[in-house]
Amino acid sequence: MALWGPVLGALLTAIVGCLCLSMLFRHRRPQEPPLDKGFIPWLGHAMAFRKNMFEFLKGMRAKHGDVFTVQLGGQYFTFVMDPLSFGPIIKDTQKTLDFRKYAQELVLKVFGYKSISGDDQMVHSASTKHLMGQGLEDLNKAMLDSLSLVMLGPKGPSLDASSWREDGLFHFCYRVLFEAGFLSLFGYTKDKEQDLQEAEELFTKFRRFDLLFPRFVYSLLGPREWVEVSQLQRLFHQRLSVEQNLEKDGISNWLGCMLQFLREEGVDSSMQDKFNFMMLWASQGNTGPTCFWALLFLLKHQNAMKAVQEEASRVLGEARLEAKTSFAFMLSALKCTPVLDSVMEETLRLGATPTLLRVVQKDYILKMAGGQEYQIRRGDKVALFPYLSVHMDPDIHPEPTAFKYDRFLNPDGTRKVDFYKSGKKIHHYNMPWGSGVSICPGRFFALSEMKIFVLLMVMYFDLELVDPDMPVPPIDPRRWGFGTSQPSHEVRFRYRLKPMP
User: Fold this and answer.
1) Which cofactor is recorded for it (predicted)?
2) pLDDT in tens, 441-456
3) Is 205 flagged in the annotation as binding?
């Protein structure tokens, strides 16, 4: 036994060394995309990528063209920047490009949830059943009730509700959407005051986790931050436990359907708790930040604000409070708001910055729209970054950095879906929700709850920026690639409930 220890140690060292050397001495083969490994062994361009993903990829495209492979922390990513070539990657009928493996590793690390066979199909099935059609209408009703509770309080507006209040616009939007979304999905107790307090406390913890999230994913936390993340994970697992949910009424059918599947598959309750944490993040991590951008753009562009308010008055009628505790709102009107739909689509074009990743399961031939073919190695990752390659493409979207509330409207007021690149009609002209197998299954509910919130704000409240001349803040570079972007600094605003006639 004493002899085998050093022998096995030497073998292990040799194997690891060979693997490292194979990465270190990787060279571009014939027909492979341009390879840029960077100057730091193994790390490659990881630091520049994590510092500012957008600027890094813009520089790589200028240097190498629409397809290039870069080394990031010992892994090789091939970025495809030509949206006319996205189709085969997104569809991938041969299933050579896998999204699930990467997603499973990520949710295990971030939320502690260990995926089981069939749960991805289960999420899509439950979302199709409960986040569309009648199921969506039921959840919209629950969301409207929750927004009324959060924004007006359990007893209705206070005596000073019509007085001006000041807050950070990002904090306000994120808090209100999170608290209302949490209550809509996870239900209520009989004590509404307690429910509101719990939602508010949970948001504080959620926001702290949110701030650590990007560096957590990249494993860049300091020792104390790792401890804090672990504590936050345990707190959410406990506060969202299925045991606590049994004491609540009104848990959403969507969440209940998915938990029932897990129970039937024999998943223990502790793993169901972690699943709840994952679904809370998936449903509430982007809606608040998106509404921040939407309201900010409306406040900075009064022509857009006027168009939305006129549409709201036309389809919803005069704003009024019923019984002083809830907003009067015809949810059917959500299907008749083309102006607001365009505003939200434009907001998502400017604010959503997701990365679409696929793991190459076997050597793969990447076929470009221009006829070029590239060999991609098994084990590498193929990546799309639509914000740079689509949303900011001036050929597809003229003046791409400008907010144009009617960009997605035809002259007759119908939705515009015809966009072109190099004279060719393009299918993937806006990709805030991802696409293909990785498209967000909850996008219809997310869009509905954001539209309800924005309509309530412009109908029932007077809004103004504390500093109207302050420019729109730049995007926080640490958030590139993680869903909806967040501002690099807060924006102060004032609001008050309009006097009711």
Assistant:
1) heme
2) 999 999 999 999 999 9
3) no
% helix, strand, coil for the chain, step of 5: 55, 15, 35
430 belongs to an annotated ligand binding site: no
- Alpha-helical segments (H) within 393-496: 443-460
Tally of residues, the chain: 501
Q: Is the domain of 79 the same as that of 212?
A: no
Cα-Cα-Cα-Cα torsion 326, 332, 335, 341, nearest 10 degrees, comes to: 0
Distance in angstroms (rounded) separating the CA atoms of residues 386 and 390: 5
The sign of the CA dihedral 416, 418, 423, 426 is positive
Q: Has 109 been labeled as part of a binding site?
A: yes
CA–chain centroid gap for 372, Å, is 33
pLDDT of residue 285: 95
Tokens of 124: 């899509």
Whether 165 maps to a domain, the answer reads yes
CA pair distance 264, 212, nearest whole angstrom: 34
- Report the predicted TM-score, pTM, of the whole model to 2 decimal places: 0.92
Domain boundary among 332, 365, 384: 384
DSSP string, 48-115: HHHH-HHHHHHHHHHHH-SEEEEEETTEEEEEE--GGGHHHHHH-TT--EESHHHHHHHHHHHH----
Q: Is 440 annotated as a binding residue?
A: yes
